[in-house]
């Protein structure tokens, strides 16, 4: 009797990184996607949304810190060293800080929503859209700040 030897299906095997976890390209997102016992993990939109909001919040915090630092430096300038754009810079920095705090509150409210409930998911989507618009405005204002700013 002849024994048939088949080659393993390489395409079905998740790619493994040097750390021993499945690569994101293999659909693992850094883990094999399997629970102990071989059951596939259920995608949890709530966890993804919370981690996305946390990461976004950290980057916003860095920009807020930079803007407050610039505002402090402008306020500490003696009147003789202030240039023609001083008022414009102050207004833009104040506007940016207010928009960033508002955006942070929107993101916090969005993160509190349960994405398994359809009504709350729609509210979270609306808050996300508002947050995206506010982010665009914050970026635009910060570009203008950079253009008018004589400081590095």
TrEMBL record:
Q: Mind telling me which residue stretches traverse the membrane in this protein? A: 85-109, 129-148
What residue ranges carry the coiled-coil annotation?
A: none
**Which keywords label this protein?**
Cell adhesion, Membrane, Transmembrane, Transmembrane helix
**Record's compositionally biased regions (Low complexity):** 15-25
Give the chief site where it resides: membrane
Q: How does it sit in the membrane?
A: Multi-pass membrane protein
Question: Quick one: where's region Disordered?
Answer: 15-39
Q: Where is the composition biased (Gly residues)?
A: 26-36
Identify its protein family: Belongs to the ninjurin family.
Report the protein name in the record. Uncharacterized protein LOC100372383
Organism (species): Saccoglossus kowalevskii
């Amino acid at each position: 009797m002849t024994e048939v030897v088949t080659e393993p299906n390489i395409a079905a095997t998740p790619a493994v990184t040097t750390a021993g976890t499945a690569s994101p390209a293999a659909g693992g997102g850094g883990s094999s996607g399997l629970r102990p016992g071989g059951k596939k993990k259920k995608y949890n939109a709530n966890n993804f949304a919370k981690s996305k909001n946390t990461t976004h919040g950290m980057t916003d915090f860095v920009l807020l810190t930079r803007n407050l630092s610039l505002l402090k430096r402008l306020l500490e300038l003696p009147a003789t060293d202030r240039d023609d754009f001083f008022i414009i810079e102050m207004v833009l920095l104040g506007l940016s800080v207010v928009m960033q705090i508002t955006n942070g509150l929107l993101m916090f409210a969005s993160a509190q929503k349960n994405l398994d409930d359809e009504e709350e998911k729609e509210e979270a989507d609306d808050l996300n859209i508002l947050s995206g618009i506010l982010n665009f405005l914050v970026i635009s204002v910060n570009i203008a700040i950079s253009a008018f700013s004589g400081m590095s």
